[in-house]
Amino acid sequence: MSAVLPGDPPGGRRAVTVWGIGVAVYFVAIVFRTSLGVAGLDAVDRFHVNASALSTFSILQLLVYAGMQIPVGLLVDRLGTKRVLTIGVVLFTAGQLGFALSPTYGTALASRALLGCGDAMTFISVLRLGTRWFPVRRGPMIAQLAGLVGMAGNLVSTVVISRTLHGLGWTTTFAGSSLAGVLVLVVMLLFLKDHPEGHEPPPARHAGAAYVRRQIAASWREPGTRLGMWVHFTTQFPAMFFLLLWGMPFLVEAEGLSRATAGELLTLIVVSNMVVGLVYGQIIARHQGARAPIALSTVGATALLWACTIGCPGHAPMWLLLTLCAVLGACGPASMIGFDFARPANPPERQGTASGIVNMGGFTASMTTLLAVGILLDATGDNYRIAFSSVFVLQALGVAQILRLRRRTARRESERLVTSRVEAVHVPA
Length: 429
Prior knowledge:
- The protein is an all-alpha fold and 429 residues long.
- The protein has a single domain, classed as Growth Hormone, Chain: A (Up-down Bundle).
- It is 81% helix and 0% strand.
- It has 18 helices and no strands.
- It has helices at 13-34, 40-47, 51-79, 81-101, 105-119, 123-133, 139-168, 170-177, 179-191, 208-221, 223-254, 259-286, 291-311, 318-328, 331-342, 351-380, 384-388, 390-426.
- Helix 6 packs antiparallel against helix 16 (351-380) and helix 12 packs parallel to helix 15 (331-342).
- The protein is globular, with a radius of gyration of 21 Å.
């Protein structure tokens, strides 16, 4: 249906401009988040740490990120996008600068935690910005485009930061990149608006612990929210932990590749993500029934390629590594499908809270995998085959939950569709 729904935001150039500012903030946050992924080996030398300690950087960052998702969702629902994004930019910029100047492992760890806290405030805010400025039918594509721009930030990490790191050094690279945070903060304060004129949300009338409990409980009761969380959990983490930390060490130390070649493979994941995101967004916008099949197919393909790679005797052939990285690129777009289950299941005043619950899924799985891989590498003498096998455990858990909730969500969506049609029939002309 192409007609604008009653009460829908108008979209248009103004919406694209405002939303673009929010996405620019998310882009910078992703650059900061993933910058450690290309600096893992340098961090080992700088702070004199082992694999477990190195993984703690990303684990703590994701722990803070995941733990902040529901609080951030509640804040976005109550305070609006601009205020929450402002706090987020200040925090993640301070974290990136602190990481650049940290003389010890402890201060660097605290800086990554601060970065994770600010990063946690970006994506849910951008999703909320999209729902406030664009018609509902644009939701899947807008979410995929946001993810695509985020992966462009990852591309900056794998291409630009990895090169400047070795050309300019640790402090100059990370301190220089923090200036991007200052830039987007200024632009956002000058030009960002929470919503178009005439589409103001109703004022928040509830506060306190009772309001928080109601928001969380109401969102969680919806099977679409829970299904979205498990889709996000199962699809996102295989690429996330690989890009965030362990991809470069695996390709260099276990597969014998040069750092330049390993960087190109990581770049392939990012490029694949951007291409697949456009395809998935178009398909889901036209065929809502394709959501679960696409997510499950992505999980299956990822598991198959992962098993072939780590089960290959000796070094895996280049064609297999290329195929693995291309398929890993589909994980990010597949994880965005989780929001497409939660969005229609919740009214506008709960969108932030529901999105926070969904977003916890993938980052919880990524954090768990980062920890498991670090511990197993130390315990097995850097045996990547054993360490990376932990991926299959979380995938099996997630698929079981998706299959359990899939039919329940479909019934609930059908009931809601029937109800909305009945109400539309009885609305007086």
